[in-house]
Amino acid sequence: MHFYDLKLLEESSAFNTYDKIALYGAGFKGNEIRQLFNYTAFNIWCFIDADGEKEAEIHKTGVAFFQPQQFIHVMENNRDIVYLIACIENPEEVWSMFNGRLNDNIRFISYFGIKQFFYQYGRYMFEKHSVMHLRRDVEDALRMNQIERSLLNKMTFFLDGNEYVWNIQAGKTGSTTIQEMLGNAGIPAIHGHSITFPDWGNAKYKEIWDSAVKQKMEQKIKVICLVRNPLDRDYSTFWQPFSSNNPRIILHSEATCLQEKYDSFIENTIMRNVPEEVYGRLKPATWHDEFYWFDREIKSGLGIDVYNHPFDKETGYTIISEGKIEVFLGKLELLEDYIDALGDFVGAELKMVKANAASKKWYSMTYKAFRKHVQIDRKYVMHYLEGNPRVDHFYTHKEKSVFYQEWENNIKSD
Hints:
The protein is an alpha/beta fold. The chain contains 18 helices and eleven strands. Helices cover 44% and strands 12% of the residues. Helix 2 (28-38) links the parallel strand 2 and strand 3.
């Protein structure tokens, strides 16, 4: 058995109509995938589920049903290609169950992988149906509604008279972890990635937003901002749109395979810094160079230039005080070392948690597999690690050497 998601996302012909398709999980997700295949020329061979009581219902659909041990037994003498699709949130459970017990003709696909396959190649597979296209259009509209609701929710925080810690960060630098730590300690906090009016926001709210932020700045403000190994951070940022099960932004480009999409993301978001031109209002709030974010948000929004203040690279954090504003700057990699200092800053005892980790995402297996194979340009790596005063403001030469070593095997040959 081998992992097939990356191959699946490279070409529309990854499936052959004469091969067998087996769905693990006869619940909602399994039936969702079965229905999508019903619009294609492909047929489902069987369902696999540990709950034997689902067998009778599945047989009504004309599809075979096996419990896991039965499936292993059936596969012992099988020489056909079988696509085993894990239709559950955590595909690693299924991988662990069957890995080493099935032959190399089994191609393992995660729920994430098959959903992205339909998003990307549905127009080639749905012969006379436009259902998937309609679904994609609806999900785009829902995405924009979610963005607007998020904008309005943040404005209510700015407009009320309560005091909050501002957990405002570049994104994918530990903000969700910080938010959970603050929440567990009973500290009210605003969580987001923008102080200035976000470029994806509806312009009709800009005046209200600006007035609300100005009003809030008349109070004492405590802001928390972290930075992170930029190569890791960018890789994590690339995957963020998939978290909401709405990856249209990733599929925006004409590129087909994940490598080409990642190349496009790095070129347009980091190297050329023109994501708005390429991706429009659907651009995720985290798609930018994290070190220039401080100019756009902290300097423009609060009037504080963090690069004019020394940063303690050894302790991993620094507190900047200007007027009524205090900014806690820290390196995510050393969060556990300075957690007591962060607790003193917010006035509460904080305990470490790890939230929003890729290992807990529905795309975790594909994320890890692509991390091994993704190729990055040396020019991009050196953009951060050689002669970049903003990166050097936070990180030592030794730390940057570690970052380089962690990604060295992924650098393209010159």
